[in-house]
Design a protein that fits this description.
The complex is a heterodimer. By secondary structure, chain A is an all-alpha fold. Chain A has four helices and no strands. The radius of gyration of chain A is 16 Å and the shape is flat. The termini of chain B are far apart. The longest helix of chain B is centred in the C-terminal third of the chain and has 29 residues. Chain B is an all-alpha fold. Classes of the chains: A mainly alpha, B mainly alpha. Chain A: It is a multi-pass membrane protein.
Chain lengths: 86, 252
């Protein structure tokens, strides 16, 4: 029942999922997380769930990274340094 | 040291139980590629005949499971309200917005080209949501992505200027209200809450679906406005960390 494309996609999802956790630098982690999201988009498309694929594409590559980046800059970026200096 | 041992003593049995329960659940799952569940098989067979909508997930989300979607919409509505309440409270009103601008010409031009394209893609995804893959949630978020591009390609002032908060606030509220109003209209028509009381129309046309189309558009409006409002709050937090934000620093 399972074909080659499905195996390839599942492997990519597994590898990128581990890569997100293994990444220590938060900024890079956001990028890797976006790639992980894209691999899930391909997974949902391959498994014939295009509605979920579109949701995943927008959430994981537009909305979520945006919120993460703003939070990272606010808590670890210049804002945090300035507050420490004060 | 003893504390560490205590933690380990607690962790190991709990993790073992969790792993056991997960494995138990996994073993009971239907095997890969097995024929659809009775409910799914029923919908695949009868949905188009009953609701005249070609995208079956949309018919499930906005009709058969319309009540669940109302809950999801209200979750989004409440979380946006919570974000706004928490973040707006701790922020002193600086009045002036920073004059940041996209530095790279490539980003400016590509972004300016992408804003209308992304907005159109979003509106298209909403309007064809019950015919082809897509729908109010996906399309709404794509539309809010277009608002984000205004900031990436233009400036924060442009982003806030073209998405005025009173308008977006009102849009979010009306989206959620329109969903409930459609449900109540079904009650007024003598049917159950959120039941499809409008004519279903011709299969495969934009006028098909009846209440599914209405609820789809209500959700699209609500999600688009909710996305923009969340971006507003988070960007407002971020923008305070921008190196050269205030006009006072520019004068120096």
């Amino acid at each position: 029942m399972i074909d080659v494309v499905q195996i390839v996609v599942l492997t990519f999802v597994a590898l990128l999922g581990v890569a997100v956790v293994a990444c220590r630098d938060t900024l890079r982690q956001v990028m890797v997380n976006g790639m992980f999201g894209l691999s899930l988009v391909v997974l949902f498309t391959v498994f014939e769930a295009p509605d979920v694929a579109i949701s995943m594409a927008v959430v994981s590559n537009v909305a979520y990274p945006m919120l993460l980046l703003a939070t990272i800059y606010r808590t670890r970026g210049r804002g945090a340094d300035e507050r420490e200096r004060e | 040291m003893s504390r560490r041992r205590l933690r380990l003593l607690l962790f190991v049995p709990v993790a073992a139980v969790l792993a056991g329960v997960l494995m138990w659940g996994l073993v009971g799952l239907p095997s890969f590629g097995s024929p659809p569940h009775a409910y799914a098989a029923y919908l695949l067979k009868h949905e188009v005949g009953q609701r005249h909508v070609t995208n079956i997930p949309s018919a499930i989300v906005f009709d058969y499971r319309g009540w669940d979607t109302l809950g999801e919409e209200l979750i989004l509505f409440t979380s946006v309200m919570g974000t706004a309440l928490l973040l707006r409270r701790g922020r002193e009103d600086t009045g002036e917005r920073p004059r940041d601008k996209a530095a790279s010409a490539a980003v400016r031009h590509a972004g300016a080209f992408l804003v209308p394209v992304v907005l159109l893609l979003g509106i298209w995804t909403v309007s064809y949501g019950y015919l082809t893959p897509g729908g109010g949630f996906q399309g709404g978020l794509i539309c809010s992505g277009a608002a984000l591009f205004l900031w990436i390609a233009g400036s924060y002032r442009l982003h806030r200027g073209l998405t005025p908060t009173p308008l977006v606030d009102a849009a979010e509220g009306s989206g959620a209200a329109a969903y409930i109003a459609t449900g109540l209209a079904a009650l007024a028509a003598g049917q159950a809450f959120l039941a499809g009381f409008l004519p279903s129309g011709t299969v495969g046309s934009l006028l098909s679906g009846g209440t599914i189309a209405l609820l789809n558009w209500a959700t699209g409006l609500e999600v688009a406005a909710a996305g923009v409002l969340i971006f507003h709050e988070f960007l407002e937090e971020y923008i305070q960390t921008v190196p050269n934000p205030s006009p006072r620093q520019e004068e120096r």
